[in-house]
Amino acid sequence: MAKITLSDLRHSYLPNPSGPEDYALKEIDLDWEDGGAYALLGPSGCGKSTLLNIISGLLQPSEGRILFDGKDVTDLPPDQRNIAQVFQFPVIYDTMTVRDNLAFPLRNRGVAETRINERVSEIATMLEVEEMLDIRASHLTPDNKQKISMGRGLVRDDVNVVMFDEPLTVIDPHLKWKLRSKLKELHQRVRATMIYVTHDQTEALTFADQVVVMQDGEIVQIGTPVELFERPQHTFVGHFIGSPGMNILPAEQDQGIIRFHGEAVAIEGAVTGEGGKTELGVRPEFVTLAEAGIPARVRKVSDVGRHAVIETVVGDTPVRAVVDDADVEQGAEVHLAFRPDQTRLYRDGWISSEVSS
């Protein structure tokens, strides 16, 4: 396995890019440590697949370098980078048995048959498919086909990184959690460097130790799932992660006091900077109905099982609250309170408040 370094990376699909808007990837600097579990998370078109193709060697970057354990591999073709990839659709041979599918990457590299048998047995045990080894792949269910596709990526012990490109897209929703759990278990057992590309926050947050969140070709935050939820560095991260996402509210700064619709709001710490587009960010989990506070009107109440989501409006600005007991009706006049240590100031999208010491 390898530490992967992306240095001063940029890429444009245009022959003569003239500005940042012409780049699909903009100034990427990133280190993935050997043996880590990482996720690239972001909406369609944010640059995830472009970055994955550059790492794998399918695409040459316009600028910058890719290093594996300090060795520059920018100009190496895919077959010389020792990368295993698992795609959206299972890449297996239907006419082969499960055993032969798992063995194929090793036979293709001239590995001794004794070692092949050992590795196939090890991977089959990890995947819990020992009883399927002599079944033709064409008879497998879609989730088991994807399991075998994962196994083909893991069977080699000389790979620098295993990359998963939206591997659960075609899997039925009720089976996805099984494969997510299995993939997490596999990483903990083999400790291979794994990069998981997805637009699904649940997949990213349940698999990865570190999540790289991308928007419009840029990395807006790198952090643990807890860090991304509790302290988003950018309003996009707050909005994209969480269900429902963070409330992003228009705000005004008046001599160090932050106001929302004229009401003073306490935030997590000192205000930094001035000017720009000023906004407040507070997750619905930290908005409560109170005896006094910001006046609001209830627009909708949704019971989602363990809790309820109350959608209110302050003036014409939507504000959501997640509560355990929704003893309130549509149209009711209420007051909202924001938990100060979870209420943050953002300026032009980026966090602009300091944590209180």
UniProtKB/TrEMBL annotation:
Residues 4-241 form the ABC transporter domain. Keywords: ATP-binding, Cell membrane, Membrane, Nucleotide-binding, Transport. Gene3D superfamilies: 2.40.50.100, Nucleic acid-binding proteins, P-loop containing nucleotide triphosphate hydrolases. GO terms for molecular function: ABC-type ferric iron transporter activity; ATP binding; ATP hydrolysis activity. Transmembrane segments: none annotated. One of its GO terms (cellular component) is ATP-binding cassette (ABC) transporter complex, substrate-binding subunit-containing. CDD domains: ABC_Carb_Solutes_like (cd03259). The keyword Manganese does not apply. Belongs to the ABC transporter superfamily. This is ABC transporter ATP-binding protein.
